[in-house]
Amino acid sequence: MHHNSGYVAIVLHAHLPYVRHPETTKCLEELWLMEAITETYIPLLEMLQGLLRDDIDFRITMSITPTLASMLSDEFLQMRYVGHVDQLLELAEKEVNRTRWQPKLQAIALMYRNQFQRARQVFDTYHHRLLDGFNEVEATGKLEIMASAATHGYLPLLFVDKKAVEAQIAVGVEAYRYAFGKDPEGFWLPECGFTPGIDDILAAHGIRYFLTDTHGILHAEPRPETSVYSPIYSAANVAAFGRDWESSKQVWSATEGYPGDYCYRDFYRDIGFDADYQYIKTYLVNGIRGFTGIKYHRITGPSDHKELYDPAMAQKKAAEHAGNFMFNRKLQIQYLATQMNRPPLIVAPYDAELFGHWWYEGPQWLDYLLRKCAHDQNTFTLITPREYLERHPSAPVGMPSESSWGNGGYHEVWLDGSNDWIYRHLHKAAQRMVKMANQYQNAQGTLERALNQAARELFLAQASDWAFIMKTGTLVEYARRRTQDHILNFTELFGQITANHLDETWLNGLEARHNIFPWLDFRVFAGDLKQPATKASWLSRAGTR
Amino acid sequence: MKGLGVEAKSPERSKVATELTAGMETASPPTSDLWIDGTSEECLPEPSTALTTKELPRGYGEDVVVLLARDPTWLFAYWEITAEGWARVRQDLSDGQCSPTLRVYDLGPQGQQPTGFFDVAVQPFADRWHINTGKVGCRFRVDIGIRTPTGDFRPIAASNIIQMPRGRMSSAVANKWFRIEEFWLPTAAFPPGGSPMGWLKQRKAQLSELEGYPTSPGIFSPMGFGSQPKQPPQGPI
């Protein structure tokens, strides 16, 4: 029997694009945030708090991107959420009443009412600042929070102008300091998009590690003998951890993945589509049929026929799947430990929003998994990447290969016929921003504000989400208009700044609407990094290799 | 954002009455007006925010071509040609005699100087193009220009240099004590709810098909597969 022969690092990437529309009373796209708060962020936070309460020895790593952190900290969106969850509660209450003659349905309605009540309670407990909750867990050392790029820019395709990538990373690091009150050590590359050279920039900001997809490590130069079961150090001495393929597939795979189990709740069947229109329309955005979050069916099978959801059955399945996941990691580690001269590490990253939002039982599965790993096995230890580097500072040296975790493993998701037109404008705007940043170093007052807003508009245009949405073919119009809107605002600001003819009223409105990073200093595009961290401090720790 | 993409799919609405709606009807008090058919009032989706309807500029008034790598074999180029740039190379020719062309220079795996090139004829009003290079791991740059009826190429603008990903494992390896070719195998984790013995049998069959490849077959360790390599398969995962 192997005893603690290796490690498993579970990583959740929490991200949503910056969607904030005070100009409308109710906005379909803001629902992304509202739903994710109710279904993912609060359940995860409750799960983590439960583990702490029960003194479970767990480790988990999360990236909380600057756009998400900004939205979670935004008072306007916090108030929107209060309104949203109150309305959900009202609907759940109506559902409980409406289903009173149908005990099986009513049990599900009660489950939702309970969930929404708890969501409201947790939101209030943290005075609407959910980040405080995650910070609280992080302080115990059992949760590690990674930084990410400013607005989730897809860095390999912005790299034509290195300054654009530097600014995404510099502002991402700065946003982390604002949100979490310390320097980040890990950095989530948006979509795991890596190209050699990014590691240099990360190193300049004191970043110790990042993650790549499996082939980012397998195709490294030279090829590491430890596969993805150990990090490698790039030329800039930043550690790169590779995604484990087997554990990814178990959760992600559309055909074999856990979330597709027939016992689990069906995502698509929602009373927003099924209920009578007059009854439900108050709870729809602008009266348009859509998701409400109340869903009464389980996946049941591949056809349209759906059975009622059975929470107890689903919970049992989540426990079974957690056991299965743990069992497979044990087998992997037992084998790998015989093949390596160091304890193998399995890195399993997932989108956080998969848990709870799409896979309703995801947080339960994770809860079971973390508890079982602590109590039901002694083959591996749960760990965070930072902790791993502290325990095992030596690693093979190699440059990870250009890669992403998108379909095809490279950039085709963000660069194909549906979205390739954006790069001409993103690159031109970045080039102009760099030029302005160098030219107006001493700007003050309204000019400085205009330059800062230009930087904001550029960042918002660079979000990888817009290209992704264009590629997936749904809500394309919104993504296209967001890209255009920010580029046009940038272009207008560029024109006003270079012509020395600022429209302050318009600028005021723009600042109020697109208010991300209120502390932003446009000079970041001139490469004037605020105290770039030295590599020396952590290099010395890795110096034994 | 993967979750978002999944979420964004339109749900299939069931065509038949379901337990849910049946349950709703049964549960509703007889006097309720909840189920009045309001379908005719349903709103059609429309953009829910006050975003711009203005279009982006067609160009920025410069002769430029920029190259990006999309994957190990495909390049993407976008460009802009001004009227002045066009006139400069067109000279005595009519527009009809000038074919806009991308000249793709192959710089080899590490080079700065072209080792060869090929031309891609692009449509007259195109401003971007996806190019299959048929090679991996090389460096490329492109010129945008015109080809004349006599076959001359007259460049208007030159691009940046792009290094394509190798798309396969490096031949350089520090040492041999751990082999990673397992990733080329059709491996899969032990499926939930299945029989471990059935799974082992299936894995054994999979691996026997690949006899001769070096393997470190993960969960299959007791079976002890692994022998000398023939040639590892190449290509993206």
Write up this protein.
The complex is a heterodimer of chains A (545) and B (237). Chain A has two domains: 6-251 and 311-391, Alpha-Beta Barrel (7-stranded beta/alpha barrel); 422-526, Up-down Bundle (immunoglobulin/albumin-binding domain-like), CATH 1.20.1430.10. Helices cover 50% and strands 8% of the residues of chain A. Chain A has helices at 30-53, 66-73, 75-98, 103-125, 130-138, 155-158, 162-180, 198-204, 214-218, 245-252, 271-274, 277-280, 311-339, 362-375, 385-391, 422-439, 445-462, 464-472, 476-498, 504-513, 536-539, and strands spanning 6-14, 60-64, 143-148, 186-188, 209-212, 232-233, 239-242, 345-351, 380-382. Chain B has two domains: 64-163, Sandwich (Immunoglobulin-like); 168-237, no CATH class. In chain B, the strands form two sheets. In chain B, strands 3, 4, 6, 7 and 8 form a five-stranded antiparallel beta sheet that branches. Chain B has a three-stranded antiparallel beta sheet with strand order 1-2-5, with no helix packed on it. Classes of the chains: A alpha/beta (545), B alpha+beta (237). At the A-B interface, helix 9, helix 10, helix 11, helix 12 and helix 13 of A face helix 1, helix 2, strand 1 and strand 2 of B.
Distinctive features:
heterodimer, A: 545 residues, alpha/beta, 7-stranded beta/alpha barrel, immunoglobulin/albumin-binding domain-like, 2 domains, globular, B: 4 helices, 8 strands
